[in-house]
Design goal:
The structure holds three protein chains of three kinds.
Chain A (H helix, E strand, L loop, with lengths): L2 H26 L16 H6 L3 H34 L5 H13 L2 H16 L3 H26 L4 H8 L4 H30 L2 H4 L9 H11 L4 H24 L6
Helix pairs in contact in A: 1-11, 3-6, 3-8, 3-10, 4-6, 5-6, 6-8, 7-8, 8-11
Chain B lengths: L4 H28 L12 H8 L1 H33 L3 H16 L2 H12 L4 H8 L13 H25 L5 H7 L4 H12 L1 H17 L2 H7 L6 H10 L4 H29 L1
Helix pairs in contact in B: 3-7, 3-10, 4-7, 5-7, 5-11, 7-10, 7-11, 8-9, 10-13, 12-13
Chain C lengths: L3 E12 L2 E12 L3 E5 L6 H9 L6 E6 L2 E2 L10 E4 L11 H11 L4 H14 L15 H13 L5 E5 L7 H18 L2 E6 L2 H7 L2 E6 L2 E6 L1 H6 L4 H6 L4 E5 L3 E3 L4 E3 L8 E4 L5 E17 L2 E8 L2 E8 L10 E5 L6 E3 L2
Parallel strand pairs in C: 3-8, 3-9, 6-7, 7-8
Antiparallel strand pairs in C: 1-2, 1-4, 4-5, 9-10, 11-12, 11-14, 12-13, 14-19, 15-16, 15-18, 16-17
The chains are: A mainly alpha, B mainly alpha, C alpha+beta.
């Protein structure tokens, strides 16, 4: 195939995939008052404004909290589960695997609605708590899958060797298993973090006065105001994600785990 | 060693129980709503009611249609792009592949928002059209099926390309030149060699794209609004505007059945190959 | 017995419902080098894992150095085990791999350092301390695994197929190495192998196993010269094995009358024990290959195929020709079953 054809096809595809995003970056850098492209003059005022919007600050904090602690909780539950599914000949292993993977199959919006109706309302749980629980459940499949695949590369006899050299079961896990799946765990954390941070459908019904995740907050802001601040914020968030992935890739060859 | 099942169960159960209680039980309860009549007996009235409304019917078929169109278009573009990517030298291949994966890391809100800038009344496309004198006033591009289609395609195309690239990487090295030497045209090479050998990747990619398009909320919400409803946006509207939980439950069931069958199909085909 | 250092008495081992080793009785003397030999699935690895404590017997008793360790967990048994895959810790460098067990014992740093250095020197890995396992060759990894076990000064060192992952040249080298280490340290070693030449070359005694049971136990010389069963004979290189019925050899293909009286039920010959060029039988050469000191023939005769190794000095018989051969009484090995 001629090089020219190859690069034309790839150029067009990448323009379609990434081009719009470059437009958002520039639209956010507009000096004008309304959203437009090409921007009416360049300025960073909208990028600066993002930081002054009170609701953005609050929802950013909430999203960050959910992404960090929801993912940590998912890992705390998911790592032992992945390990057990690997090393033990469990009765009902397939059932456990299916249950834990279920959140990836069930559309998010249904989850949010179900939790609102049967968890938040009857049990009088706070929205924040419901969001935390939802995000934990949503990240769990990633945690189990990524940790499983790094356990795959770790032979079981490594642990046996550790035990024969004097380790207890727990020591064999902390001294031999954990250090060797560290990369996988970190990868799972990053994937989980990004998935949670960008999550919309499940969080849609789980919002209350003053309690909204950042993407939901952006959606409702867009409905009211048509200024470039959402563009600027979108760009900033994207840079954050890309920076995280880039650093992870540099540090541990992140893409091996995805 | 370590065949102590109780110990293993103790490690696996918290995750399973957690997901079961806070996830499957509420979802199950939600799904059961539509199967109950007002007196509490089992009935299919909710489903019959739902499908008897023309609006619901049209939303249902639109969702299927858009999902299908997005899959087909993604497959066509995906094959072209994936074929180009696997034919690149290793370094370039890694970089381009990285650029394809990159959008997946970006918030769907941000990615969809871009299309407002492009397709809006004062967006690039309309500015160009009006500027060139092709039309006097801006045309409506947002809140159309086309806009939703474009948005969904952009959102999920990377999944198709990734699946197809990994399928194509598994085509044995000299098979395509061998077919060429035996007299196959490029057209024949595609349909007789590439397509059969990447069937599994196509199915995986297709399923991911289809379920993605089916269950996307942001794109139809931003680019379709209330004019171009899809099942997800309809569900949101039924709950938030009409407080109609029966319809919501029906839609939930439809979405779950569709995603589940797609997922099952995927597993079947993947296991047949293995 | 009084001189048993390791003893297994009526040990039954099972995986779930399937019994892998029923009622095993085995005694190993101190300082001995024992080979557990047999095809895969014969229970040799299972038995070794039981000695290590990775598998708890369903019934029976395991005694090591006078102490009943049947219920002692693997980490308290003081046994060394070199895994077939070496099971080195990929996140630790060579030094830390060897020091791993010593650190768990909370020994003073100076002692850990000293013993690790000695251990690495014993296997000739001085200078490789900071290498990660992935940066070492197969042979070096093998030595490292050996050192890691040796520094613990185990009562018994178990080795699972210690040479199977090495190429032919390294295998010979490691054989000598293992023997040297055993001689230097006087440690009791048990190794598992499916390769009879490895067992013959290394072991003081060989435990030949089949279907979870001991088929024959003896010194290499005994097993080599006097296998008792068809299985043992086959494993020791008797490639021509036939039933005897009233002075006639019988196979599935046919019969051939023996030139002598035999009361035994089965007779076996090594290829080297078959005479070609003279004798009362004839066979057609269907394969012939040069093997240095001798030439290997496959003869097709009334009994089916016979393998014969003939000194290279005797004239070559071309493929397809009939040739006289003999299965002499002198080289026949009588077998019980």
């Amino acid at each position: 195939m001629p090089r020219f054809a190859i690069w034309t096809i790839l150029g067009l595809t990448l323009t379609f995939l990434i081009g719009p995003f470059l437009i958002v970056i520039l639209a956010g850098a507009s000096a004008g008052e309304s959203l437009a492209f090409p921007p009416q003059g360049l300025s960073l005022k909208w990028y600066a404004k993002v930081f002054t919007v009170e609701s953005f600050r609050a929802s950013f904090a909430l999203s960050l909290f959910l992404a960090v602690f929801g993912t940590l909780a998912a890992l705390a539950l998911g790592i032992p589960a992945a390990y057990a599914l690997h090393r033990y000949d469990l009765l009902g292993a397939e059932t456990i695997r299916t249950i834990v993977a279920a959140p990836i199959i069930v559309p998010g919006i249904i989850v949010g609605l179900a939790l609102l109706r049967y968890f938040v309302v009857p049990l009088d749980v706070t929205i924040t708590m419901a969001l935390f629980v939802t995000h934990t459940a949503l990240v769990m499949p990633y945690a189990v899958r990524v940790v499983s695949s790094s356990l795959n590369n770790l032979r079981a006899d490594m642990e046996e060797a550790a035990v024969i050299l004097g380790c207890t079961r727990l020591q064999a896990f902390t001294k031999v298993v954990l250090p060797n799946i560290r990369g996988g765990i970190l990868a799972a954390f990053i994937l989980g973090f990004i998935a949670s941070f960008n999550e919309v459908p499940a969080s849609l019904f789980l919002s209350g006065p003053g309690v909204r995740t950042l993407p939901i907050d952006m959606l409702s802001y867009m409905e009211i105001t048509f200024d470039p601040s959402v563009a600027a914020l979108s760009a900033l968030l994207a840079f954050m994600s890309i920076a995280i992935v880039f650093i992870a890739e540099r540090l541990l060859g992140f893409s091996r785990y995805v | 060693m370590f065949l102590n099942r109780r110990e293993g169960l103790a490690l696996a159960l918290p995750a399973a129980l957690f997901t079961f209680l806070v996830f499957l039980v509420p979802v199950g309860l939600l799904l059961s709503i539509a199967f109950q009549s007002e007196s509490g007996a089992w009935s299919l009235e909710g489903y019959i009611d739902f499908f008897s409304k023309p609006l619901n019917q049209s939303v249902f078929f639109r969702t299927l249609k858009l999902g299908f169109l997005v899959v087909v278009t993604a497959a066509v573009i995906g094959y072209a792009a994936a074929f180009c990517i696997v034919n690149l030298p290793t370094t370039a291949r890694g970089r381009i592949f990285g650029l394809v994966v990159l959008p997946l890391m970006i918030s769907p809100v941000a990615r969809t928002y871009a299309w407002i800038v492009i397709l809006g009344r004062t967006g690039i496309v309309n500015d160009t059209i009006v500027g060139l004198g092709l039309a006097d006033t801006p045309i409506r591009l947002l809140f159309t099926e086309t806009a939703v289609f474009i948005g969904l395609l952009q959102l999920f195309l990377p999944l198709m390309i990734i699946s197809l690239v990994s399928a194509m990487e598994n085509i044995p090295e000299d098979v395509i030149p061998a077919a060429r030497v035996l007299g196959a045209s490029w057209f024949q090479v595609f349909f007789r060699i590439i397509l059969p050998l990447t069937r599994e990747g196509l199915v995986i990619g297709g399923t991911l794209v289809f379920t993605g398009a089916l269950t996307a909320y942001i794109t139809p919400a931003i680019l379709g609004g209330s004019k171009v409803l899809m099942l997800e946006t309809l569900l949101y509207q039924q709950v938030n505007v009409s407080n109609d939980f029966v319809s919501a439950s029906v839609i939930a069931m439809i979405l779950i059945v569709m995603s589940f069958s797609a997922n099952l199909l995927l597993k079947r085909i993947a296991s047949v190959r293995r | 017995m009084s001189d048993a250092f390791v003893s297994l008495a009526d040990v039954t081992l099972s995986y779930g419902q399937t019994v892998a080793v029923p009622d095993l009785n085995l005694e190993i003397r101190e300082g001995e080098l024992i080979a557990l030999l047999g095809p895969s699935g014969c229970g040799k690895t299972t038995s070794m894992r039981a000695i290590a404590g990775l598998l708890t017997p369903v019934s029976g008793k395991i005694v090591i150095d006078g102490v009943d360790v049947t219920r002692t967990p693997a980490n308290k048994r003081g046994i060394g085990l070199v895994f077939q895959s070496y099971a080195l810790f990929p996140h630790l460098n060579a030094f830390e791999n060897v020091a791993f067990g010593l650190r768990l014992k909370k020994l003073p740093n100076a002692e850990i350092r000293q013993r690790t250095e000695v251990g690495m020197a014993t296997v000739g890995l001085t200078g490789f301390e900071t290498r990660k396992p992935a940066e070492m060759s197969g042979g070096q990894q093998q030595r490292l695994a050996l050192a890691r076990s040796l520094v613990m000064e185990p009562k018994v060192l178990l080795l699972d197929e210690p040479l199977s992952n090495l190429d032919a040249r390294l295998r010979l080298e490691m054989r000598n190495e293992l023997q040297r280490v055993q001689k230097d340290t006087g440690i009791t070693m048990v190794f598992v192998t499916h390769d009879q030449s490895e067992a013959l070359a290394l072991a003081d005694r060989i435990v030949l196993m089949k279907d979870g049971k001991i088929e024959q136990l003896g010194t290499p010389a005994e097993l080599y010269a006097e296998p008792r069963t068809t299985f043992a004979a086959d494993f020791m290189g008797f490639e021509n094995i036939f039933r005897v019925e009233g002075g006639t050899l019988v196979s599935e293909q046919g019969r051939l009358s023996l030139g002598f009286d035999a009361q035994e039920r089965v007779l076996a010959w090594r290829p080297g024990g078959v005479v070609v060029g003279q004798g009362s039988h004839t066979g057609r050469v269907i394969a012939s290959s040069f093997a240095g000191q001798y030439r290997s023939y496959v003869l097709d005769c009334a009994l089916g195929q016979i393998k014969a190794d003939v000194p290279i000095e005797t004239p070559e018989v071309p493929i397809g020709e009939e040739v006289a051969f003999d299965l002499p009484k002198a080289t026949a090995r009588p077998l019980a079953t």
